[in-house]
Sequence to fold (469 residues):
Amino acid sequence: MLFCTMTFIYVFLPIVCTVYLAVRPEIRNHVLLFASLIFYAWGEPAYLPIMLITIGVSYLGALAIDYSKRKTVRLICLAGTVAVLLGILGYFKYFSFICENLNELFHTGIEFVKVALPLGISFYTFQALSYLIDVYRGDVAAQRNFYKLALFISLFPQLIAGPIIKYHDLNYQIDERSAGFNDVIYGIRRFIIGLAKKMLIANTAGELADRIFSQQADAFSPGIAWLGAFAYAMQIFFDFSGYSDMAIGLGSVFGFRFRENFNYPYISRTISEFWRRWHISLSTWFKEYLYIPLGGNRGGNLRTCANLFAVFLVTGTWHGAAWTFAVWGIWNGFFIIAERLLGLNREQQRKWYKNLALHCYCILVFTVGWVLFRAPDLQYACTYIANMFALIPHTPGVYRFVYYIDVIPALTLAAAVICCMPFFKNIIGYAENSKRFIWVFNLWIYVLLILSTIEIATATYNPFIYFNF
Fold:
């Protein structure tokens, strides 16, 4: 089930909220668990058992770790449980990719059935892994109540596209939380803002990007190539940050406090800063559970660079089973390492023109990176990037630049650029603390809901990019 559907907004969510508020506090977790299972099974009933197996394996594995007294036995229990969970993830996400590459590399004829990727498997698997590692480290005790662990892994607001919630950040909220009137109002506003970002900006930018990327990579001018890359950059940010806003808002309605997942990444001046602001839950997950265990920055520059390279290679392949994702991860890792060696990753006071130059550099790097992320294969990506920089002759396209950027896309992209900066955040903060302007802000929220609802009812284009990961 998608957040941006009539069924979810006007049927599922009101029913869940009504039942949740009507029952006794001690059974509200059961209501949320039941609702989460229905939410997941609505679109993927065949894959519900996979998620339940993940929950069951995590539950038993954590108990075994917690019960064991010897460190070696605890490590074996952890390794075995993690291997099972990663095996499930690897089969569904990478099996077809591995077989295809083996056939191509060795000219073999391995026959295989292409495996469909269950929704959200990367997200809920990583949450289960965080739980197991937290138990192994002794940060938390193993959860004896199966239903509470199931709720943590399957909680529907962030189940299929994050943000990734670490167990030690949420375990106490499962047992004890409250949602006052202000929390509910904040949650509703945050949900509507995320819905508007998705329906009114991301979808419009996505249609423009798809129109360009559906052509041959050299079938248009460099200007149109840049337009396609820019439109996709806007689509992926507002699509994913919009979903995160909706998830955080829904969590607030039910009393959960999810950490922020985006902090205006497009205002960054370095790629290091970009990754401190982009998909924060994934970045911190890899830092906590991969980068630091590998040694972090404790082994000198060479070891640190190797650790960073490994982390970003894994970050790339986590997003999908394709060479484009692996190269995209390496692309980001290269600049992270270069900035570290040059000392650009440190926060420091700089002259305005240096900040401007760094900001332009950062925009250039992540925009080119998004082409790798969006392209169907590496050959297409290389040709597209070469076209952007006029390094290859291009075939004059059937349509000129003005065909793509008419009034609606132009206004949408202009609004997207403004919303990429903390301009509206400051206005919202001021409105929420002003009795004089709060009614104007609430009216604007209602307008966004109405416009988003109209778009849901009439639009035929409504994908969620991160559902594929």
